[in-house]
Amino acid sequence: MLHGRDAEQARIDDLISAARAGRSGALVVRGEAGIGKTALLDYAAAQGVPTARSAGIESEAELPFAALHLLVRPGMELVRQLPSRQRDALEAAFGLGEGAPADRMLIGLAVLTLLAEEAAQGPLLCVIDDAQWLDQASAEALLFAARRLEAEGVVMLFATRSGPQDFPAPGLPELALPGLRPEASAALLDAGPIPLSPAVRYRLLAEAGGNPLALLELPSVVGDGSVDDANPLPLTQRLQLAFHGRVARLPAATRTVLLVAAVAGAADLAPILRASAGLGASLRDLQPAQDAGMIGTDGQVLTWHHPLMRSAVYQGAALTDRLAAHRALADALSGDDAADLRAWHLASAATGPDEDTATALEHTADRARRRHGLHAAVTAYDRAAALSIDTSARVRRLVLAAESATEAGLTDRAERLAERAASLSSEVREPARETPDGRATGGATGQAARPGEREPLSSAGAVGGRGEQVIAAEVSDAEFELRLDLVRAQAEFAGGKPGSAHRRLMSAAVAVRESDPRGAARILTKAVHTAWYLGPDELDEVADVLATLRLVDEDPATPIARYLTGSVTGQRVADLRDAAAAARAGGADSPADLVQLCGSGLVVGQDEQVEELAGDLIRECREQGRIALLAPLLFFRSEGLLFGGRPRESRIAAEEGLRIAQDIGQVQWVSQIHAYLAYLAALQGDSTRCRDHADRAVAEEFGGAGAVGASWAHAAMALLALGEGRLEQARTELAHMTVEPARHHVIGLRTLPDQIEVAVRLGATEHATEALDRLTTWSQRAGQEWIAALAARGRALLADGSDAEQHFQSALTANRPFDEARTRLLYGEWLRRDKRKVDARTQLEQAMALFDRLDAALWSERARTELGALGVGTGARASGGPLNVLTPQESQIVRLAAQGLSNREIAARLFLSHRTVGHHLYKAYPKLGVLSRGELSALDLDE
Question: What would the pLDDT profile of 611-642 be if each residue is shown by its tens digit?
Fold first, then answer.
């Protein structure tokens, strides 16, 4: 019976009732130690629903996927039913397969699919206790799955300590577990077996603060000397002291076994007993502890009465005894499956440098990286460095730790690790020098390092690609410095310092352009990205260095470098499809090497090709499980879709990109895509959604006014203001597009027509002319007819009489839907002012029809207002097609189903469970007026 938890139990009951009806849910229960979190989880598990359990174990926090394996182990026979890539990813994560490292979010998708399979015959409850001690890899996979639960009949309950940093779970509902109310506290205390005097009872109720564990445990020690009456310690520490007082009264051998168990952390009794035997204790010595209610055991597993009991045993033991327990456990563990745990116990037992232990930990880190347990790899490499005897080995391991931290997104830690490595390196290495014959001298070994002997940066994980990040035992000083600079550059860019990041990347590229031109090209593709946030001078610098690289035509970097060289100046030098095809033919790492081509393609106006290439790369990412690349690719595809006149599809892709970016912590893309969604909302005339997205894009956590998404956010607010006729506000927002770096950004170029229109309407002819000059230059460089059409529209707005009409007509010869609609609106307004009502009506009606199809409500209303001024009635706005009645996710699923994809195939593409896909289709059918998926192909699903 739980005292005083009626509201919390009702919350659990609601989740379980929903699961029985086929709906899923998740809940994070937070509270201090002893507050009753585990009791609430036990209550949930007692409700008659099949339950899978796991828990974070402090000693296994650096073992990737340890907690996840414990949770899904009962359903492992269902792994064979998973889609092949998900099955391979999950088996590789558990060390059961030899597959390549999988993206950690693909593992999360495999967990989601597996849970859905387990719940196929009825509801499933997943209980995860002590989530604050989950290994990071397990936490990421479980949170990925929990955020996507919808219609599987699965409930996931997490219990964790109070602080949000103990187990960050953004996007999941939380339940803060407070102390019991006074009447419930009194009832629980009075139900105990120990009679209490009124004074002691009053004191315990006051000091316990409603903490159930304190109310149960403190009565046995108050007044017996175990707890100091004047002890000012926090309640948790007081409980630990109370528990330790009970431990101190046990026989010495019992305390030994308990210490080994506390050091082990895990529940498996066999290694605990083997280690205890080496310290003179055995199974029978556990009996006093079990009789005292401190632990429980069935001869195979050992469970603690409460985690604080384990902490009390460990913290109360002498340091020498703890070290001995760690060493004994390391000796007791054998076999490949225990190698990682053994390495960590050896490290915990070490009191100084120990190369054997350092080597074992490095191997543990290598295995963690292969299984995509990047956080664990960083910690293991770092600890291995600390235990290294040789300084060069220490530096090498620190560099590996820094590179792994960069890959994991731990940019601050990566920078600190890189600084430590650089500091050590400078202490023991001579500066690298280049002799007249081109040989590099100096280095860790003091031997000459010829350029041909250097590991090419083109194969290094720090530069890009999926290869393992391996550093040879003997490399040149220059190689170390380049590696460290690349780590620093990525950390600085992620930390909002593109200037210093760019300088490091350029220095690294220049340093290796002779010895490793392909590696230099790959570095420069990153430098293109940093340069976009700085200005044209930096872009020109990248283009100049790219042009000096001696790349052979067969090298996959050659077509990429050539395309980027032109695009950074807005000059079309090649066809995007041809460049991508040539790079692939040469063996480029697709999709990773081709992502930047998409962004550059938008600069030269190859929007349709960008949409096509991004779509291909997105499919490759899904097939290969490379989820980290999806957010930028979905963003680029969204832009291509919007510019091509498909705003609803654009929004669907953008919202998926935002969900993924939020899931894996890509804050740059969270800001960028929020701002882009603000722009889409402005197009639709949804001012509330526009402002919400724009505000979120420039939140302080993303850099405030300097956030990556700031340019798109200003463009969105400008478009909204222009559509509403607030010209001064539009001019204020567009002013941000006239200064660097926004001036040369994609959105800076795309808003030039807006700048012209606003300036003309406000009588600022000089500003309009300046914007037109820039638009004309861009048109000439990019060679795109649609840009030339926009320039013609700008000339029409600045011209008079027949010249204006000629330019308007030229502007209508090559345009895309939204641009065409706006041109016809402006032309119709001009014709109405020229008293040509019939011609004006023709243009305005066509503009209104296009705006209606694009769901551009503000602009459609503006066209209607103009028609009304002509005395023309317009009727209700068109509905916009069958998909207009669906939510974005329903629309996305319906499109894929209409293409013939099964629910499981759709689920794999969209990172959902197949049961959620079925749920959305079930809701979509009546909205569309169909009875089955077979009828979807007959619908007109085009925008």
Answer: 999 999 998 888 777 777 899 999 999 999 99
**pLDDT recorded at residue 571:** 65
* Rounded-to-integer distance, Cα 829 and Cα 153, Å: 57
Asked if 138 contacts 65 with a C-beta cutoff of 8 angstroms, the reply is: yes
Residue 463 clears pLDDT 70, i.e. is over it: no
Concatenating the DSSP letter of every residue in 710-775 gives HHHHHHHHHHHHHHHT-HHHHHHHHGGGGSTTGGGSHHHHHTHHHHHHHHHHTT-HHHHHHHHHHH
Average pLDDT of the chain? 85
| One-letter amino acid of 836 | R
Q: What does the pLDDT read at residue 880?
A: 56
pLDDT in tens, 19-35: 999 999 999 999 988 89
Q: Is residue 163 helix, strand or coil?
A: coil
Position 132 confidence tier, pLDDT thresholds 50, 70, 90: very high
Report, as an integer, the average pLDDT of 575-595. 90
Angle among Cα 728, 732, 733 to the nearest 5 degrees reads: 120
DSSP notation for 411-438: HHHHHHHHHHHHHHHHHHSPPPEE-TTS
The conformation of residue 75, written as its DSSP 8-state character, comes to G
pLDDT per position as a tens digit, 90-129? 888 887 766 555 667 788 889 999 999 999 889 999 999 9
Joined tokens for residue 820: 């065409």
**pTM for this model (two decimals):** 0.75
Structure tokens at 475: 């490399």
Cα separation, 133 vs 239, in Å, equals 20
Q: What is the largest CA-CA distance in the chain?
A: 106
> How does DSSP assign 92-159, residue by residue?
HHTT---PPPPPHHHHHHHHHHHHHHHTTTS-EEEEEE-GGG--HHHHHHHHHHHHT-SSS-EEEEEE
CA 851 – CA 861 distance, rounded (Å): 9
Residue 831 confidence class, pLDDT cut points 50, 70, 90: very high
User: Hey, is 626 helix, strand or coil?
Assistant: coil
CA nearest neighbour of 173 among 30, 36, 17, 13: 30
- The total of other beta-carbon atoms located within 10 Å of residue 695's CB is 12
In angstroms, rounded to a whole number, what is the distance separating the alpha carbons of residues 919 and 5?
34
Indicate the residue type of 304: W
Q: Checking phi first, is residue 880 left (phi over 0); if not, alpha (psi -120 to 50) or beta?
A: left
The dihedral of CA 716, 720, 726, 727: what is its sign? positive
pLDDT confidence band for 444 (50 / 70 / 90):
very low
Residue 704 has pLDDT above 60, yes or no: yes
Q: Which two tokens stand for residue 713?
A: 């956010």
- Left (φ > 0), alpha (ψ -120 to 50) or beta: where does 55 sit? beta
CA atoms within 13 A on the CB side of 67: 30
Q: How far apart are CA 557 and CA 463, in angstroms?
A: 13
Decide if pLDDT at 433 tops 80. Answer: no
The set of residues, in sequence order, having a beta carbon less than 8 Å from that of 859 and lying 6+ positions away, is 683, 685, 723, 821, 822, 825, 847, 851
Residues shown for the chain: 943
CB atoms within 10 A of CB 450: 13
Is the previous residue joined to 741 through a cis bond, with omega within 30 degrees of 0? yes
Residue range 374-388, pLDDT digits in tens: 889 999 999 999 999
Sign, CA torsion 137/138/142/143? negative
